[in-house]
Amino acid sequence: MTRVATDDGTRVSIATFRALAKRGLVTGDTGTPLVIGQKITVTEQGQQALARPRPHASLRTAVAAPPKAAVAQGVHR
Length: 77
Fold this sequence. Notes:
By secondary structure, this protein is of the alpha+beta class. The protein has a domain at about 5-50. The chain is built from 2 helices and 4 strands, in the order E-E-H-E-E-H. It has helices spanning about 15-20, 45-50; strands at about 5, 10-15, 25-30, 40. Strands 1-2 form a two-stranded antiparallel ribbon. Strands 3-4 form a two-stranded antiparallel sheet. A hairpin with a 5-residue loop joins strand 1 and strand 2. The chain is elongated and about 80 Å long.
């Protein structure tokens, strides 16, 4: 997993960075590519978002319907 370091040394995943950026919760030096070492700063609101507990993914899965019996078409006895 690729991580991005903020100015204060906090490391966040690229997915987290993109989620924060989409919401305007980070700023960055666009003169340097992100993967090369772009300096980013998480805003106050971004820090609060990172500090909040994240919702857990649902562990329930949909139950698949049992397969229907195959009916041969055109075969008569």
